[in-house]
């Protein structure tokens, strides 16, 4: 936090902040309203035409907007030459989002508009491998992602940066994973190590909690996008939560808010990954369902395309049950059994629905959300748990009919956190477009055009603005 006293006269830093804010206003306007002329932008965002011209020139330089000829309109024919419209570009921007799960690493790359240009999942046992090997694996996968996008792109590619979603408590400022119970990581400087192994400058790497990134993705691009009060619940071995309240992520004083998986619901219940008893995670996490359904000690199944990698992982994790299956495969197995009418599986799903409803009722009493979105594996078992879980939720909430809160299934599935991480990097660019000019990553083979590099040299001597 900046405790310096504000001086009476505006400083150079103030001007820069205003300039950055104006760039953001223009970008957001074009992103939400669509193409507009310079004069139109000036009128609608309340800036002078000369200011808008300067801002647009800078955004054109950065390749974040482009000029297009105004399409002639039949109802308002205008004489003279057609006005030039500006629209959001950013096809050359690559925002990377990665997610580390208990059983896999996901890497997603998008352009500035959020269009996915790269997606890869790799089966990976992060708990077994440890944080250093995991950082190396994330670095390799991201290097490959950049190489692939650069190879396929007709123009230069500028990397906006990499956000990594971690299933646990993360110190966002320092990139330290404070506590990731299901990975058995504690106090590990993941951001610093990842920067070393990937040749990315540390400021280009952002770490965050997986559920918070997933909640951002749901809020922006999910089936309930724009719902200002929503709660996202991860459905994996671990259960995390991301809370959006009045359109803002609720992170708490350390960024540790939303750890709803560790609400204690049954003090005498099963042992949780965090070492305590009866946490919500120990009742509704995927392992709990597999245990109840009697599927936790099934033999290792044959694997598909990833057989070589996964077979190795299976050997290393022998005796740990079917953890080496992907979460999706294991949940699909439960659904298969339920469909076949297996009584033990159906009873396990009934128990699951009750605990989902009880926990959801607590959340509704505290946060009054419009919707609670169940992510990850819940998609596979939705038909058996949703109606009963909603009933239990309504019974447990003080407000009539739980205030109309819905229980819904994520449309983004296991991709949500990585998509949200990439969206976070896009937000960083829109909030401070000039950072693209500062950040050129020659080691990654993705420098901007010569003009941009010249600008970078000029700017790099200026002090960096603090990233929010
Ligand atoms: Zn716990």
Automatic annotation (TrEMBL):
Disordered: annotated segments: 295-327, 447-468
Ranges of Low complexity composition bias in the record: 309-327
Pfam families (UniProt xref): MarR_2 (PF12802), ROK (PF00480)
InterPro entries referenced in this protein's UniProt entry, alphabetically: ATPase_NBD, HTH_MarR-typ, ROK, WH-like_DNA-bd_sf, WH_DNA-bd_sf
Signal peptide extent: none
Ranges where the HTH marR-type domain occurs: 26-70
Family per similarity comment: Belongs to the ROK (NagC/XylR) family.
Protein name (record): ROK family protein
């Amino acid at each position: 936090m900046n405790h310096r006293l504000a001086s009476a006269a505006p400083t150079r830093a103030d001007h820069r902040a205003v300039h950055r804010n104006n760039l953001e206003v223009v970008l957001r306007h074009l992103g939400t309203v669509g193409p507009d002329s310079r004069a139109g932008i000036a009128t609608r965002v309340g800036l002078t035409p000369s200011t808008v011209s300067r801002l647009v020139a800078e955004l054109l330089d950065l390749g974040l907007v482009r000029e297009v000829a105004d399409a002639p309109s039949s109802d308002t024919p205008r004489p003279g030459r057609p006005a030039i419209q500006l629209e959001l570009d950013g096809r050359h921007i690559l925002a990377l989002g990665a997610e580390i799960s208990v059983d896999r690493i996901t890497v997603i790359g998008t352009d500035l508009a959020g269009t996915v240009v790269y997606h890869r999942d790799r089966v990976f046992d992060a708990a077994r491998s440890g944080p250093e090997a995991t950082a190396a694996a994330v670095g390799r996968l991201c290097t490959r992602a950049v190489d692939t996008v650069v190879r396929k792109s007709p123009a230069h590619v500028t990397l906006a940066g990499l956000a990594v979603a971690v299933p646990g408590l993360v110190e966002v400022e320092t990139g330290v994973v404070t506590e990731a119970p299901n990975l058995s990581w504690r106090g590990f400087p993941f951001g610093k190590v990842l920067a070393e192994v990937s040749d990315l400058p540390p400021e280009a790497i952002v770490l965050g909690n997986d559920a918070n990134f997933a909640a951002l993705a749901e809020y922006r691009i999910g089936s309930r996008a724009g719902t200002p009060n929503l709660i996202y619940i991860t459905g994996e071995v671990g259960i995390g939560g991301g809370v959006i309240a009045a359109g803002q992520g609720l992170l708490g004083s350390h960024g540790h808010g939303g750890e709803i998986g560790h609400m204690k619901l049954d003090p005498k219940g099963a042992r949780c990954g965090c070492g305590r008893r009866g946490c919500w995670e120990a009742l509704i996490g995927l392992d709990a369902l597999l245990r109840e359904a009697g599927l936790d000690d099934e033999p290792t199944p044959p694997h598909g395309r990833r057989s070589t990698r996964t077979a190795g992982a299976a050997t290393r994790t022998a005796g740990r049950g079917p953890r080496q299956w992907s979460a999706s495969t294991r949940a699909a197995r439960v659904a298969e059994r339920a469909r076949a009418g297996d009584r033990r599986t159906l009873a396990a799903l009934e128990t699951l629905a009750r605990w989902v409803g009880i926990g959801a009722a607590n959340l509704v009493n505290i946060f009054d959300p419009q919707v609670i979105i169940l992510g990850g594996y819940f998609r596979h078992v939705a038909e058996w748990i949703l109606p009963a879980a909603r009933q239990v939720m309504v019974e447990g909430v003080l407000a009539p009919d739980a205030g109309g809160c819905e229980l819904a299934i994520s449309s983004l599935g296991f991709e949500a956190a990585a998509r949200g991480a990439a969206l976070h990097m896009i937000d960083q660019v829109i909030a401070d477009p000039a950072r693209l000019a500062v950040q050129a990553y020659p080691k990654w083979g993705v420098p901007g055009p010569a003009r941009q590099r010249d600008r970078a040299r000029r700017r790099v001597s200026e002090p960096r603005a603090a990233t929010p």
